[in-house]
Design goal:
heterodimer; A: Rossmann fold; B: mainly alpha; 11 helices; binds adenosine-5'-diphosphate; binds magnesium ion
Chain lengths: ~270, ~290
């Protein structure tokens, strides 16, 4: 079991600008070739956790002040993103961040930045294999692509780097249900065919738990629950607050849920 | 008519130089949001390095030219490494003040070594480059400028469009955070922008030195022309910088030719104000793609 762990986060605290503490002792472990889902409501600290791993806290004046992040047996907390990406960790940012004034294919080419000699022929083909919709948009400026296409561009761009660990931050946000379904199918395919380990941050817990092996739930900068995806789906709290289904199976509206109650249960 | 054609060609070629210098300025701004107030001094560094190589070291023209370009490239790179990198993440005003300081430093060094007099290069351009037809008399330097300018433009156009490093540089200008997330060496991109900007500035400095003579104060004052050029062209558009440069160059030469030489430095600014009243983001300011 121990040898199968690709990434281990041990009790980390993250502070922005030396004063704003956002993570208060987060621990999680990611097994090789797994999809691990990180769930939680807005502001829980999911993005911050991913940034702590990818090194992107640095440019935002954030810092891991406590604990450790171990990737393949090596401490990587507070390293530069230039270094971490070259270890095989690629972070696909929240909100899709295309290079608007570059064409779709140029966007993909930037993905080879970490690789020696910047090969891109075979890799472009591989990306177009997963995202056939991008082929006919190759020459279009990314700024003019639809939300679904943009999600494909940023994921394809990341694949160009041949990541061992892919961090996906809310890939489904703002997309139509059919597109979300398509994206999630591709995530599974990538995980299986490329043997890419994935941390999937989502608010869409239903979809995420369908494809994940394991899941964590965050609230207020802490992990409040974890378990195999199969167990989590059955958990009454998850059902109630994340899947929108009451214990008795009746649909409840979010309005009925009192937030203090929710906090109390998990802290 | 002949006079008009002559002014037109002079204006375009001088404007090309302004445009190329402005392109370097825009490149630094686009990649790192730094306004470089030492741009004119980079021009002067190139002009004087070439002077030293040609007159003191007695090198032939072509090697001297290439060594000057290489020297400017290294200078830009080193300036970024030594002075600007420590300030990454600090408020922009610090960085701008630093470039103002760099300007004084470069100027001081040049004055110390070369003094404040007007120097000239030996006459080396082949006379067949000049055009003499009827009343039209275009000195070789203007045709040479056009040739060099177009060559630079083509080389950099291809570099930014097709080379990996060129695409990375554009990606940083476009979305720095995303570039960082993919492992692009953002700091290397900053340094390269400075290096390329200094190289192009050095080239412009040499050619302007051929046209106007080489003087520290004059050359660094030309750095100020970068501002109307980039404001006209749009601060974030490289193509706009070239066209803005040509417009300013034309305005200058036509004012000097038809109105009065003493007005040539003023009229471009007056026109600039009027254009900005109509198009506040410059003629070619990037249209923000609002799609997401
Ligand atoms: N750069 C920052 N500086 C200060 N506070 C931040 C910064 N980024 C995020 N935060 C704060 O950290 C908390 C968690 O944010 P985030 O990690 O983005 O949560 P999530 O991704 O779960 O929505 C929020 O309260 C947010 O305001
Ligand atoms: Mg988030």
């Amino acid at each position: 079991m121990e040898n199968n762990i690709l990434l281990q986060i041990n009790n980390i605290s993250v502070v922005y600008s030396d004063v704003i503490q956002v993570l208060k002792g987060v621990s999680l472990a990611v097994e090789k070739n797994h999809i691990v889902s990180l769930l939680g409501s807005n502001g829980a600290g999911k993005t911050t956790t991913l940034k702590a791993v990818s090194g992107l806290l640095k440019p935002e004046n954030g810092k891991v002040t406590d604990g450790s992040i171990i990737y393949k047996g090596r401490n990587i907390q507070n390293q530069y993103p230039e270094f971490i990406t070259r270890q095989g960790i690629i972070h696909v940012l929240e909100g899709r961040q295309p290079f608007k004034y570059l064409t779709v294919e140029e966007n993909l080419k930037v993905g080879t930045a970490t690789r020696w000699l910047k090969p891109h022929k075979d890799d472009l083909e591989m990306v177009y294999h997963y995202f056939p919709a991008l082929v006919k948009r190759r020459k279009a400026l990314a700024g003019y692509c639809s939300g679904g296409e943009l999600q494909m561009i940023v994921m394809g761009r990341a694949l160009m780097a041949h990541p061992e660990l892919l961090l996906l931050d809310e890939p489904s946000l703002g997309l139509a249900p059919l597109v979300v379904k398509e994206i999630f199918e591709i995530i599974v395919k990538i995980n299986e065919e490329q043997a890419t380990t994935i941390i999937l941050v989502e608010q869409n817990a239903g979809m995420a738990l369908q494809i994940a092996h394991y899941g964590y739930v965050m609230e207020n900068g802490k992990i409040v629950m974890e378990g195999s995806a199969a167990d989590l789906v059955k958990n009454p709290d998850i059902k109630e607050f994340y899947l929108g289904v009451g214990v008795a199976g009746d649909l409840r509206s979010y309005r009925d849920v009192k937030s203090y109650r929710r906090r109390k249960r998990w802290l | 008519m002949d006079f008009f054609v002559q002014l037109l060609i002079n204006g375009i070629s001088v404007g090309f130089l302004y445009g190329l210098s402005a392109m370097g300025f825009v490149m630094i701004f686009k990649s790192s949001s730094v306004l470089n107030f030492a741009h004119g001094e980079l021009l002067a560094m190139g002009a004087f390095l070439f002077l030293a190589l040609v007159t003191w070291a007695q090198l032939p023209i072509l090697p001297a030219f290439l060594i000057t370009l290489a020297g400017c490239f290294v200078l830009g790179f080193v300036v970024e490494r030594l002075f600007l990198r420590p300030l990454i993440g600090e408020p922009l005003i610090f960085v701008i003040m630093l470039t103002v300081g760099l300007a004084s430093m470069f100027k001081g060094i040049l004055l110390l070594i070369f003094g404040g007099n007007l120097n000239t290069y030996p006459d080396f351009l082949p006379s067949f480059l000049g055009i003499q037809r009827g009343m039209i008399n275009i000195p070789p330097v203007y045709t040479a400028t056009l040739i060099i300018g177009l060559t630079f433009l083509a080389v950099f156009g291809l570099f930014f469009k097709y080379s990996s490093q060129g695409i990375y540089m554009r990606s940083v200008a476009d979305n720095q955070k995303a570039a960082l997330s993919l492992g692009v060496h953002v700091k290397l991109v900053f340094a390269l922008s400075w290096a390329i900007a200094a190289l192009v500035a050095g080239m412009s400095g040499i050619v302007l030195g051929i046209i106007n003579g080489i003087n520290v104060h004059d050359l660094s004052a030309i750095g100020l022309k970068v501002f109307p050029v980039v404001i006209l062209g749009g601060l974030d558009s490289i193509g706009g910088a070239i066209i803005g440069g040509i417009i300013i160059g034309l305005l200058e030469t036509f004012t000097g030719g038809y109105l009065s030489p003493s007005l040539r430095d003023v009229v471009p600014y007056i026109v600039l104000v009027f254009i900005l009243l109509v198009k506040p983001y410059g003629l070619f300011g990037l249209k923000e793609i609002e799609r997401v």
